[in-house]
C-alpha cells in the first residue's frame, strides 16, 4: 500500500492554459496580423510582377534560341497588354505562331512591344538594343511595387532588371 506524502497533497497540477491566457494570446496574434496585413497586398503584387518579368525573360530566351536553331528571324510581340506571342517569321506574310502566353493578373506590357531575333541570335535590325518594361494595371511602379524591365543589348545579351526605376540602365 502506498502512502501519500503531505507535501504534494494540497497542490493541483496545473496543465494547459487558462481562459485569460488564451484571450491574451489571441489578442497579441490579432495585433500582429493587423500590423502585417497592408504589406501582404504589396507582396502579392510584387510576386505577380516578378513572375511576369520572368515570363518575358523566358520567352525572349526561347525566341533567341529558336532563331538560332531555325536559322531565321523569330519575333516576340504583345498583341494585347496581357498576352505575349512568339512567331517564326520565315514567311513574313504568314508568320507561324510558336507560343502564346498570358501574363499574371495585374501585370501589363506595352502593346507596342515587338522585337525580333535574327539567325545569329542578335536583335533585328542589326545593331539595335531592346528595352521592355513590365507595368502595373491600375497603379504605378515605385520602390515598394517593383516593376521589372527586360534589356537586350545590340550583341544579343538578354538580362532582366528587378526594378526598372532603380537598377535598370
Give a written overview of the molecule.
The protein is α+β, with helices and mostly antiparallel strands. It has a domain at 48-161: minor pseudopilin epsh fold, CATH 3.55.40. Helices cover 31% and strands 23% of the residues. It has 1 helix and 10 strands; from the N terminus they run H-E-E-E-E-E-E-E-E-E-E. The strands form 3 sheets. It has a 5-stranded antiparallel β-sheet, covered by helices on one side. Strands 7-9-10 form a 3-stranded antiparallel β-sheet, with helices on one face. A two-stranded antiparallel ribbon has the order 4-8. A hairpin with a 5-residue loop joins strand 5 and strand 6 (123-124).
Question: Biggest sheet, in brief?
Answer: 5 strands, antiparallel
Report the end-to-end length measured between terminal Cα atoms.
87 Å
CATH architecture type of the domain at 48-161: 3-Layer(bab) Sandwich
SSE series: HEEEEEEEEEE
Describe the global form.
elongated
The count of β-strands is: 10
Short descriptors:
single chain, 169 residues, 31% helix, alpha+beta, five-stranded antiparallel beta sheet, 1 helix, minor pseudopilin epsh fold, three-stranded antiparallel beta sheet
Briefly characterize the structure.
The chain has 169 residues and is an alpha+beta fold. It has 1 helix and 10 strands; from the N terminus they run αββββββββββ.
